[in-house]
Amino acid sequence: MTKDPLQIEGQTIAEKYRVERAVGEGGFAVVYRAIHTIWNRPVAIKFFHALSLARLDRRELFMQAFIQEGALLTELSSQTASIVQARDIGTYMSPQGHWIPYMVLEWLEGCSLDELLEHEREEKLPPWSLTEMMNVIGPVASALEVAHARGIAHRDIKPGNLFLIGDRTRGKSTVKVLDFGVAKMMADNTDVQAALAKTGASVQSFSPLYGAPEQFTRSYGATGPWTDVFALSLVAVEMLSGRRVLDGTDLVQLACASADRDRRPTPRALGVPVSDAVEGVFARALAVEPAKRYARCGEFLAALTSAARITPIEPPRVSVAASRPAVIPGPPSNIALEETLVSESSPEVAPPPLVPSTGSGAILPSSASPPPADLGKGRRTSFLLGAGAAILALGTGVLLAFFNHSREPSAPGGPGAVGASGASGTPAAPSQELASAAVGTPGKPAPACPEGMAPIPAGQFFMGSDAKEAQPHEKPSHNVKLGAFCMDTYEVTAKDYKACSDIGKCRRAPVEVDWPAITAAERKLYSTLCTVADPAKQDHPINCISWDMATTFCKARDKRLPTEAEWEYTARGPDGRTYPWGDEEPLPAHLNACGTECVAWGKSHHVSLEALYPASDGYPTTAPVGQFPSGKSRFGPFDVVGNVWEWTADWYGDYGPDDGTNPAGPASGERRVIRGGAFNGSFASWLRPSFRYAQDPKAQSHGIGFRCAKSL
């Protein structure tokens, strides 16, 4: 490395950073150690000298993006101590007239995990134990989950971007995730690319040694948080095996190794003796198809923690009232259960007890057909930078994306189906063809929606059903026209709701169920399923809340509850399909309903339950949102059926022959409509988007949650 690439040693930048020495240099950036002259503390300054190649008229645009990404990094690092902190940004004009943006980051003393692993290989030390590995990977996964909860992916997780501070003894160091970098922004910019081409340099936005299949070719789908799951798993297997995981010496060979279905780079494939449970977790995390992996690092960590029966070291967190809380990893719940059931003796849909009631409460429907509810009448409808060049993997020409690093909304849930529309937990937006057809204006783009919401284009459809098996309250089928609107991609989660209540905009979510005629036994049993009270279920849908609480949350987000018509159109679209995914009967891959796992839970709690399908969907009670990409709506939203019923804005009333344009239901009533079935659903009929239940708006059920809509 050149001693002083920018010739700035001894200079003071921005009147407060006295530059001491260069500590790392790559093709696109150089890092200096400096002293903050006011605080008299060391900092790292990363100068992105490759951006000086941009045209003069593009600098302002670059700087705005730079500011936004710096603010994002600051926000993320405020929520977890395991992401390097950004302190400042600015621009420097060199004596040669070069315009160079820079970022000031916290200074860290230590070494990268890459350096440590290389040293251990040279010393022929044994590989890491499962516990030692988890003490590093656990905090990293928790830190990444903070970003994943925002739909943001790192996309260049590798040992060189994991920095160990303090004691280098295995499991004793504090770990920092580094380098939410700038490579992708430069790779996507034609000005910079043209200038770099003259020097023979090239840019990739990931490290091929830790690349997921979708990073080598988009034929596997889009990148997202699930891409970080793949890379972090490779790092973990490298620690356990003591050697690099993907075989290959060039990009093509590494791409083939990453996507080789016959040899997945799991621990056992590299000779590491692990339990069946641990091997199974890695097999899923390293699946070739993004849709088959854990959608986010929080889910991966929870599964690995449970399989390994190890409690990972948690990084310290900074509590920020208005920020989204980080996921606390923990073993998945082993509870299973049912949702809202219908009472034969009451017109009300009782909030789902799992036990048959001997009184006036709800009872479990028979397997022949669920009893229809008498639903009422009258509807009208370092960075860090450590102190060494190894921290900068910049000289390889392979950097992480800092700009536009996977702003694809994702979440928690899981990668979507692989295909032309992208594979991701990020639901792909409706195709241009679909959007244009629904709107009726060829070529017109889908309306813009806030992050985390799917655009639902204007259109019309036949609401309800005239099918022979349809219940009376689903009839008659009638034509409805709707304007464009937005719908939440995922059901509102427990942590989303808690964030609202923590800042006083929402009432605190109850930790007990409540509904008319509830028994003491029901209250005791089902209150254990309220997700807000369970740290392991913060990515599960919020439940146990009333209609008013759901309405207040949506208003606090400048949204509202969807109307019945909007909900049904979102779930089924204009083509009259039977289920959100089409006409195929429900399978465990489609949704979280009552499978064999639910029946097993019932037996353990002396409750008689019936399976919808003769297999397990993996979740005896609620599931993290977005876990079933095969069952998502054609417009993108996940879990529109199954998981929890969802409150809608409408009072219940009978359908008229034609409810016209943007129907909103009766002006008043006694019960609100819920839609979509839940995790304890034993009947396929409950899962039809046309199926309706009515519920006391004050009910607080473990089987009812919600999502929000927004007018356009």
From TrEMBL:
Gene3D superfamilies linked: paralog of FGE (formylglycine-generating enzyme), Phosphorylase Kinase, domain 1, Transferase(Phosphotransferase) domain 1
Binding site for ATP: K46
Biased composition (Low complexity): 420-431
Residue ranges of domain Protein kinase in the record: 17-305
Keywords: ATP-binding, Nucleotide-binding
Domain of life of the source: Bacteria
Coiled coil: none
Region (Disordered): 341-375, 410-447
Pfam families the record matches: FGE-sulfatase, Pkinase
Family annotation (InterPro entries): CTDL_fold, Kinase-like_dom_sf, Prot_kinase_dom, Protein_kinase_ATP_BS, Ser/Thr_kinase_AS, Sulfatase_Mod_Factor_Kinase, SUMF_dom, SUMF_sf
Protein name, UniProt field: SUMF1/EgtB/PvdO family nonheme iron enzyme
The organism of origin for this protein: Pendulispora albinea
